[in-house]
Amino acid sequence: MKNIGSCHCGNIRFEVEGDIDSGLACNCSICQRKGSLLWFAPFSAFKLLTSSENIGSYSFNKHVIHHKFCQICGVSPFAEGADPAGNKVAAINIRCIEGIDLDSIPVHHYNGKDV
């Protein structure tokens, strides 16, 4: 399934292939503050539809995840990182996916605060 997403102002638009079967709510210092609900997809399934000109990037701690945000509206629709096997992944903030019923998505709570 093709999923279309964006930041609030539309400066960042993307599509990602795959079935969103669950979301991950992390309590690490950044996810808790942003309120992200994440779904991980292979980076090869992710396609940026707009210019990267106004996309900011933020990394912290071990600097393995690059949190992307719109420098105009401030929304963080995705991040880039790697899975435990080293494969590049897109961490999609499913709150930024168009037409999704968030109440139908099972949520897994991850203790990123203590990692």
Described by the principal axes of the CA atoms, the overall outline is globular
The strand order across the widest sheet is 4-9-8-7-6
Largest sheet: 5 strands, antiparallel
Low-pLDDT regions: none
Average pLDDT:
94
Gyration radius from CA atoms, angstroms: 13 Å
Portion of residues in helices? under 10%
| Derived structural class | mainly beta
Overall strand count? 10
Q: Would you give the CATH topology?
A: Metal Binding Protein, Guanine Nucleotide Exchange Factor, Chain A
CATH classification class: Mainly Beta
Question: At CATH's second level, what is the architecture?
Answer: Beta Complex
* H and E order: EEEHEEEEEEE
By DSSP (H or I, 4+ residues per run), the number of helices equals 1
Task: Please give a structural write-up.
- The protein is mainly β.
- It contains one helix and ten strands; from the N terminus they run βββαβββββββ.
- It is globular.
- Strands 4-9-8-7-6 form a five-stranded antiparallel β-sheet, with no helix packed on it. A three-stranded antiparallel β-sheet has the order 1-2-5, with no helix packed on it. Strands 3-10 form a two-stranded parallel ribbon.
- It has one helix at residues 29-34, and strands at residues 2-6, 13-17, 23-26, 38-42, 46-48, 55-58, 66-70, 78-82, 88-93, 107-110.
- It has one domain (2-102): Beta Complex (Metal Binding Protein, Guanine Nucleotide Exchange Factor, Chain A).
- It starts with a strand and ends in a 5-residue tail after the last strand.
